[in-house]
Amino acid sequence: MELLKVRDADALSAQAFEHVKARLLEKPDLVLGLATGSTPIGLYQRLVQAYRNGEISFARARSVNLDEYVGLPPNHDQSYAYFMRYHLFDHIDMPEDAHDIPNGMARDLEAECARYEAQIKRLGGVDLQILGIGTNGHIGFNEPGTPFDSRTHVTTLTEETRQANARFFNTPEDVPKQAITMGLATIMESREIILLASGKSKQEAIRRLFQKEVSTDLPASILTQHPRVTVIVDEEAGALLP
Ligand code: F6R
């Protein structure tokens, strides 16, 4: 894992943007793996701006998202489908049928997970996966204890994750209890990964990640076994690193 330390959330977004932009210019038909949450919003803003400036195009790019809540329709303002349209897809030239996200409303959730895995294969795999990290070390919604050989599956969110995400909902009880997430083995098959961490709440997860002890207690620790991972942290998230 390569570590890049930057000053603050803004510098983190700028660094991540340069990384994604370079890959997109090298390979216009890039397959992007996308994340939601607060951390990549600044990256998406920069990608939208660069598209508007004519610096980059997504016309040939494709994307898959890491996860989606079970039970939220795509027009629910807290669904990840909505988040992605709001922050990125509505503002760029990626064709409508070129981005995919798990359908948390599928009647048969197992079949939806299988469809999603097949879709990633059909795209030829993910070229560049963007990840955030949970305070408990989750990546996607792979919570502590998730097996490293997991593929796309339905997962039950931990109380810690539901509390962390409660800020986006009217009441904490409104936070869905389940999600569909790419599995850890699915994520590990990406050809390249960038993990972004910003703020004090991520300090402990980042400290544990760089202890480089691989354990399902810290799902992100599997990334130490991947040949091409860049971790970008701001000063607060990286404060406990040597
Ligand atoms: C989002 C996702 C999650 C988040 C993580 C951090 O698609 O898969 O793993 O990346 O929960 O979220 P934020 O960025 O809100 O701190």
From TrEMBL:
<dbReference type="GO" id="GO:0005737">
    <property type="term" value="C:cytoplasm"/>
</dbReference>
<dbReference type="GO" id="GO:0004342">
    <property type="term" value="F:glucosamine-6-phosphate deaminase activity"/>
</dbReference>
<comment type="function">
    <text>Catalyzes the reversible isomerization-deamination of glucosamine 6-phosphate (GlcN6P) to form fructose 6-phosphate (Fru6P) and ammonium ion.</text>
</comment>
<feature type="active site" description="Proton acceptor; for enolization step">
    <location>
        <position position="67"/>
    </location>
</feature>
<protein>
    <recommendedName>
        <fullName>Glucosamine-6-phosphate deaminase</fullName>
        <ecNumber>3.5.99.6</ecNumber>
    </recommendedName>
</protein>
<feature type="active site" description="Proton acceptor; for ring-opening step">
    <location>
        <position position="138"/>
    </location>
</feature>
<dbReference type="InterPro" id="IPR037171">
    <property type="entry name" value="NagB/RpiA_transferase-like"/>
</dbReference>
<dbReference type="GO" id="GO:0005975">
    <property type="term" value="P:carbohydrate metabolic process"/>
</dbReference>
<keyword id="KW-0119">Carbohydrate metabolism</keyword>
<dbReference type="GO" id="GO:0006043">
    <property type="term" value="P:glucosamine catabolic process"/>
</dbReference>
<comment type="pathway">
    <text>Amino-sugar metabolism; N-acetylneuraminate degradation; D-fructose 6-phosphate from N-acetylneuraminate: step 5/5.</text>
</comment>
<dbReference type="InterPro" id="IPR006148">
    <property type="entry name" value="Glc/Gal-6P_isomerase"/>
</dbReference>
<dbReference type="InterPro" id="IPR018321">
    <property type="entry name" value="Glucosamine6P_isomerase_CS"/>
</dbReference>
<dbReference type="GO" id="GO:0019262">
    <property type="term" value="P:N-acetylneuraminate catabolic process"/>
</dbReference>
<feature type="domain" description="Glucosamine/galactosamine-6-phosphate isomerase">
    <location>
        <begin position="10"/>
        <end position="226"/>
    </location>
</feature>
<feature type="active site" description="For ring-opening step">
    <location>
        <position position="136"/>
    </location>
</feature>
<keyword id="KW-0378">Hydrolase</keyword>
<feature type="active site" description="For ring-opening step">
    <location>
        <position position="143"/>
    </location>
</feature>
<dbReference type="Pfam" id="PF01182">
    <property type="entry name" value="Glucosamine_iso"/>
</dbReference>
<dbReference type="GO" id="GO:0042802">
    <property type="term" value="F:identical protein binding"/>
</dbReference>
<dbReference type="GO" id="GO:0006046">
    <property type="term" value="P:N-acetylglucosamine catabolic process"/>
</dbReference>
<dbReference type="InterPro" id="IPR004547">
    <property type="entry name" value="Glucosamine6P_isomerase"/>
</dbReference>
<comment type="similarity">
    <text>Belongs to the glucosamine/galactosamine-6-phosphate isomerase family. NagB subfamily.</text>
</comment>
